[in-house]
Structures are given as C-alpha cells and as structure tokens.
Amino acid sequence: MTDGRALALAYLEQQRLLGGDAVILPASEPTPGARPGKTETPPSGLPPSGVSFDPPSGDLFAADPVQQAHTLAAVAALVAECTKCKLCENRNHTVPGEGPGNARLVVVGEGPGRTEDETGRPFVGKAGELLTKILGAIDFPREQVFICNVVKCRPPENRLPQYDEIAACVPYLFRQIELLKPAVILAMGGTAAQTLLNTKQALGALRNQVHRFRGIPLVVTYHPAALLRNPNWKRPTWDDVRIARRILDS
Ligand code: URA
Ligand code: SF4
Fold it and tell me: How far apart are the first and last CA of the chain?
C-alpha cells in the first residue's frame, strides 16, 4: 500500500471514529483497525467495494429560501413575512420594490420613508417625485425601471439603516438583482453605493465613474432626498445619470 493510500485510510478511519459516514473499503485490504476475521464485503444494495463518499448535496445555500425564490413576486412574498431584523417591529408595510421583471435599469435607494411605509411602494413621497423627474431627464419612464431599496422596512424616523439591518436584508436585494439581470444599476446615496460596492468610501469618491456589481455596470449618485436639501448637487446628479444613460444606449 502506498503511503498516500495508507494516510487516506487512516484519515477515513479517524472520520468514522468521529462519527462520520461509513466508508466502504476494498475487501482485499483490511481497514486499519478493522476487527480481524470480519469480512468487509458490502451487503447488497451498497456501492461496489472501493473508497466511496457521499457527493455533496447541492451547494451550501441550496436550501436558502431566498435563493429558492425564482421570481420577483416570490422575493416580495418572503419580504412580506420577514422578521429577520428589528425594523419589522414598527412597519406598516414592507416595501420590496417594484417595476417590470425585464427592466434594464435598476435604481437602489436606502430604505422606505413614511409614505412608502404607508403604501408599500418605493419612492412615492417627495424624494420619489424627484426621482421620477430625474428618470424623465434621461428619457426613462419610471414604469420601465425597477425601483427598490437596500432595506425593505422603514427605519424609525428615517434614520440610517444600521449595519445589522442591512446585513439581514441585503440578500433580498441581491436576489432581486440576480433575477433582473439589468444592464445598469443606479445606486442613489451612500447607503446603496457602499452596500453594493462593499466599501466605506464616501459617496463623493464613488461618483463620476462606472463600477461593477457582479459584472453589472453600476453608477453612483446622490440620493434624491439629499438633492431636495442641497440643490447644488442637481447638476452632478444629471452628469451621473447621463453616464447610466450612455451605458444603456451602448
Ligand atoms: N428614500 C429611499 O431611499 N427610498 C424610498 O423608497 C423613499 C425614499
Ligand atoms: Fe426583514 Fe429587511 Fe424588513 Fe429587516 S428590513 S425585517 S431584514 S425585510
């Protein structure tokens, strides 16, 4: 027996003693430590003799309900029932996001505000009106865009979503993007940009360039609510959305 084989057998025996699955070994070469005289011919129904092991059953996440959601509606249904973070406690409605399944542009904001929480729809308050105008400026009717947020329930008093809330919620967003496969993602505001790009860099440093999220071009710009407070940012926002428009046209 080669050293490698002896080592493998010793390892498998160790695994067996630790409670691992049974391993069927060739009858001709007794397992180290096997009781003398005990035959190792597999009973019928078992695989033929030789070292065998159970193939892994799918990938690690195959049983994850979010990964098993195969439509946007299925993701929304999971969100509607979700209690994975404390934002579920005060919500009136979950706001999973909305738009056509074949949208080429996905807009990602931060989280629902008051009007969104009341209606269950994203970007329908004042910031939403401005978003509709911004999309209009690049000839994108809102109805053709999938609009959603990083967190799907309203943070109290519109505070920033906290790290644990984002971590709990972001699988829904990632799955939505996976299903949509858009041509461009527009991340509005620091929370969306930093979450999607997995960075702590400030918004200003992330603007004005094309990033990628899992291969999909991603453009960063100001959040419409910030634009309402600071009209000086309107011009740079037009510049950013024009970058998105150019990608869509190319
Ligand atoms: N702000 C957001 O980030 N999302 C909304 O849906 C509304 C306001
Ligand atoms: Fe679930 Fe997201 Fe709502 Fe938290 S914010 S309860 S993770 S849907």
Answer: 62
